[in-house]
């Protein structure tokens, strides 16, 4: 049960406004349980569990009952998935606790909480059947190809157009805050999972373009370069430095494609070298181009390159001829051309590795 502390900093009228905001966001489908207005630091409040596992601006579930910590009240929203069990919503403004609301019984599927960061959930109906079974509530995708980093890149480009600058900048900053809060270097040299859920499930990611630290770092580096964001720049550089030192086994590269193959890794390092001028990235790019060239098999696939596919999760890999851009021979050819010509590879805007607005 939530306990009131002495000298509440907010009047009843203000607390009621906050409560209505919280309850209104949930659609009024779940009646509130006990409520209180309390004073004091969030970390000291007796009814707030430890904040371990929650990012500096993030939203997370901790302990039993499930707890959501929301740091700042504003008009933006964060879509989150709550388990169908007792839930305690802890709301604060800055580091001052404002309100707790305890829900019990059935929590609606589409629960929304207000907060200082924003993210997007991948709905279960658009997942592969195998993932839909494992993640019946969907998940938060952290890959450049399908997830929040791609949205961050898009929002960054929108801010450069001058369209609704206050709104777009706010949305970019909130989304970027959520993404950065997902970085976790404990237990692994790699910081980002492929995706995460509010139930605590996740899947590891290898450092390639579509998922993992390398692709995410490439996106963050562009934002840092264009906005002089030193904290994002520092994170991106640390991620790239880590990727440079990783044993080859961490990459799990089977073919040469851009998406998750040797030329994709090589092209990111090449692009980073062009921006930063650090010879370490040049050496890494050359190393991965060499690996891609070693995969060439004359008379096979399309132009000597084949695509490695896995029809079933954890199944046997098979090789197929594939001319496609993202994971086929056309993409391999473009990446190799980018390595030996002075022409800027503007085609990689399709991979969010460059931007016409920067």
Description:
The protein is α+β, with helices and mostly antiparallel strands and 358 residues long. Helices cover 34% and strands 11% of the residues. The chain is built from nine helices and eleven strands. A four-stranded mixed β-sheet has the order 1-5-4-2, with helices on one face. Strands 7-8-9 form a three-stranded antiparallel β-sheet, with no helix packed on it. Strand 4 and strand 5 form a beta hairpin. The longest helix has 17 residues. The N terminus is likely disordered.
Q: Give the SSE order as H and E letters.
A: HEEEEEEHEHHEEHHHHEEH
Tally of individual helices: 9
Mean pLDDT value: 74
Helix share bin: 25-40%
Query: Which structural category do the helix and sheet elements fall into?
Result: alpha+beta
pLDDT < 50 stretches: 1-115
| Ends distance | 51 Å
Instruction: Tell me the overall shape.
Output: globular
* Beta-strand segment tally: 11
Radius of gyration over C-alpha positions, nearest whole angstrom: 23 Å
Strand order of the largest sheet: 1-5-4-2
- Give a quick account of the main beta sheet: strands, pairing sense, barrel closure: 4 strands, mixed
Strand content: 5-15%
